[in-house]
Amino acid sequence: MWKNRSPETEKPLEGFLTKDAIKGIYLFGAKDPELISPDNWESDFGFMERPNAVRVNLNLFYDYRKNVELYPVWQKFLRDNQPKTIIFWGQTDIFFTPAGGEAFLKDLPKAEMHRLDAGHFAVEDHLDYISRNMQRFYDEKVKNRK
Questions:
Q1: Which residue in 3, 23, 66, 128 has a CA-CA distance of 20 to 30 Å to 59?
Q2: Range of the domain at 19
């Protein structure tokens, strides 16, 4: 789709916007899928049923092509500024591989990385762990520090 945008190249991406696909994305790789509320995919799909919502999302998918060319800019910013960073990475994310998470450590070697037994929506079944560690990280590394 990125090189030749047409109804034919968009068609496969529309599949990601169906109720079953949205539900599957929430559940794929989740360690504890019973912790994930069906309200998530029901609500997301409800948004997909609004006028022009599919078109807006297809436009967003098309715009993703610009991300790759911006990676060097973002990577330089991270290398130059070394922001205090905590990363939570679902190791079974359907879209972002473990290698993608590890790549951040090349530019942010002091980042705190948490590799979770989770999928794309790690916060859904790891909320307590993530929120507890975010608070700890803030208290230890950010609050009252320069």
A1: 23
A2: 7-142
Q: What are the pLDDT digits (tens) for 83-118?
A: 999 999 999 999 999 999 999 999 999 999 999 999
Answer whether 65's CB lies under 8 Å from 89's CB.
no
Would you state the structure tokens that stand for residue 123, as one six-digit string? 């916060």
Residue type, 96: F
Q: Which residues contact 122 (CB under 8 A, 6 or more apart)?
A: 88, 89, 90, 93, 116, 130
d(CA 135, CA 63): 34
Which residues contact residue 14 at a Cβ distance below 8 angstroms, ignoring those fewer than 6 apart? 54, 58
Under a CB-based contact definition with an 8 Å cutoff, are residues 116 and 90 in contact? yes
Tell me how many domains the chain contains. 1
Q: Within 13 Å and on the Cβ side, how many CA atoms surround 89?
A: 20
